[in-house]
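User: structure tokens for this one?
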Amino acid sequence: MLPYLLSKPRRSGGTLLSTLLDSKTDLLEHCNLTLLVRGEDKARVFDGKGLRTILFDDLEDTTEIQRIASNFDLIINTTPGGSVNSAAAFIRGLGNGKALTGHDVSYIHVKHPFKHPLPLLQRKASRVDIFFFMMQTSGTSNLADQPITNAYHEPRTFTDASPDLYPYLQHRNSLTPYAQRTTDLTVISTGLASGVKTYIIMPPTIYGTGTGFFNRLTIQAPTVMRSALHTGQVLQLGANDGDVECVQCEDLADLYILMARRVVREESEDMPSGERGIYFASTSRYTWGEFADGIAKALFEVGGIKTKEVKKVGLEEAAKEWTGGHQLLCELNFGSNFRTRPDTSRSLGWTPTRTKDDFDNHYLETAKLVMNTLK
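Assistant:
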């Protein structure tokens, strides 16, 4: 079997890497770990821990990506959700390697709209080399509705056991092109054309303090917190108190490890891939009102703002504060509704342990970390 490749870690990717290194499973007994790293400073840190690294800066250098990927069996790609060209190049590279060796190859794609190292796994005789490339991921915003603009309403609760997810994503993207959905669809279609097994993990809001070597913050809550420290008050998008979901970052990392372990140990026969290879990772639900109130109380407690009152704003102002003016990205990630059931993920043996109480209690710790980054 050729090496396995895992993409570049940062937020959830960094936690995935640290969980992989600390894992009590026998995954690393069958693998060597390599990291695809951006920046010599990060490479030195990983090198100092005895990890093999490859410096790589340009996700648009698809020729080099294909060359690297052709030497590996498994790629866990945690790069940004909109990196469609690099995702396709990783898969084509795996396909090229498979054509040369005849061995099965696999690609795990984790999505979230904002960056992490990337893991590559490779087998040498009785061992597998893992390559980790640090970037970020994205998820269930691909399924989210648009109640602020009234562009799309979606009352359903989706299950990852449904055979209709792939055509649903195609339909939604035909109505409103969205970079993350486009990447997912490209991952699936390229995998089918290249003979590469693809697995897409779609987490909801990721929360908690990461365990990686560098950035330990997640996305949504820190983004709203930094904005509140700038404006003096926590903002909430519109009047929608939507029903959305979350997963703690270490629980999510456990799902990555579970799936990678099954692939490495050649126990993935019952793991759906391709058009059926979409996996959810939700554990608890919350509302945007609860989210804004939790942030306001936490920032007030640490002295970051002088009021616990939340200010409701329109899409244009919220997008300017949180997503660089990108209104679709803002609505899908800060003002939508989405509901999922990780039936397939749980059928594989995924058993997350964090509850809604953990989510409710994470605001204060996150607020302290965000304040510390400003010192």
